[in-house]
Specification:
mainly alpha; 521 residues; two-stranded antiparallel sheet; 21 helices
Amino acid sequence: MSFHLANLAALPVVAPVAMALALLLFPRPCAARRTAVAVFFAGLLGHALWLVFHTVESGPLVLRIGGWLAPYGIVLVADTLAAIMLGLAAFTALACSLYGFAEAPARDEHPLRLPLLCLLLAGINLSFVTGDLFNLFVAFEVMLLSSYALLTLEAGARESRQAWSYLTINLLGSALFLAATGYAYSLLGTLNYAEMIVRADALEGDFRLTLLGVVLLLVFGLKAGVFPLYYWLPGSYPMLPAPLAAFYAGMLTKVGVYVLLRMTGTVFPPSLTALHTLLAWVAGATMIFGVLGAVAQARVQTILSYHIVSQIGFMVLAIGLFGPFAFTAAIFYIVHHIIVKAALFLVGGAVARAHGTDELSRGGGLWRLAPWLGIVFVVQAMSLAGLPPLSGFWGKFMIVQEGFSQGQWVLVTLSLVASILTLLSMLKIWLGAFWAEAPATAPRLDGGFRRMTAVGLGMVAVSLMIGLAPQPFLRVAEHAARTTLDRPGYVAAVRAANLEQVPGKHPRAVAPETTTGGAQP
């Protein structure tokens, strides 16, 4: 039986599930188990990088699961945007797991941490490659169930109580998502993205389509942590162990941002400008309220958690500005932010290890005692604030440039104010954790601390490469933006997969030749 290249679209989903099962069969933490996980994540990263190059050169991979034809069966679509997100997820999982290995010896590791991390990664990856709204719901549930377990796996009674807000808001979001999925099916008669595109075009100008868009944006905005739906995030992430907090900070909210890109750029008609305007103004509020929350905090991880909210605002603003250049800026900013934010959370974990707490009033002295950790923080903090020539500058510059070109003076001003306040809150961490006099109790700077710092330095190297040589990354982001907005091209790719016959099999359904808008009564 011949191998079809499209099967590789399923690898980022199937492989983490298989790895999780294998880890459960060998539950005893040991060095060999950790090595296998690190090699596995590195392999996923290599596969994602190959996917990026393949989709840029040859177009998306479209897999019809089980040979069923779209829209009657499950379809996986790995285009350039999905491939970029798969690469970021694998890279973040690799860096955070290596940090966790440096943080504590294998004998102290909870045996379920790595299997649950793999299942979480499977749900995240399925969110990126699914071509079907209901299977996006399934992906979210796999992701959320794993995240619930990890959130309380190593927490005490007090921290577990703090997880209630995370659990409650996401359960409500899941219920709303399921209801929105049912409404989408009743309106369009399909949940396959490609067919939704065609039928949504036929309903262009219908108020019901706008209502569907608003409900779905509410669902995915909750997942992304936009204003006013972000209150669950700053209290939840700091209770996690540092490597898990860094992975959550880097990836979980970006799943919501990715789906906002996919829905507004690919599935819904570009004429729904009211949705874009709504997103842009919600983004402005998200930037300001998030950064004000950060300024008011006195713990490293809590400050950084509020910054997740604020920085999500920049990405959503780019989506709301809409268009190829704005989407290029959003994708480039996502790449920058995932790496920088995960690295900063790892720095917060190192600060907490050195002083036994990440409270700024009880820290200090790390610039003199651990200058390499200080370098990691300074570079990533300045990048988060958007100072040139670091990676954060280019994304913010493009967003501001697009805002000016569209005459959005208020939103641009809000983004600039948020950037200044970001710099001030980063200075607050610098003065409290690094520059202040060391406390009476000597910081714990052992071999584990140095290995943790080395992981942060590796992430800084990647971030600097993006900032100092942005052209290749911008070209890939531009291609991803262009293909994300190429709605006819997406439909053609999915329908072309229906014409490819699997040797030795007969199609289980017939592909629709024409599609009419709306479900038939």
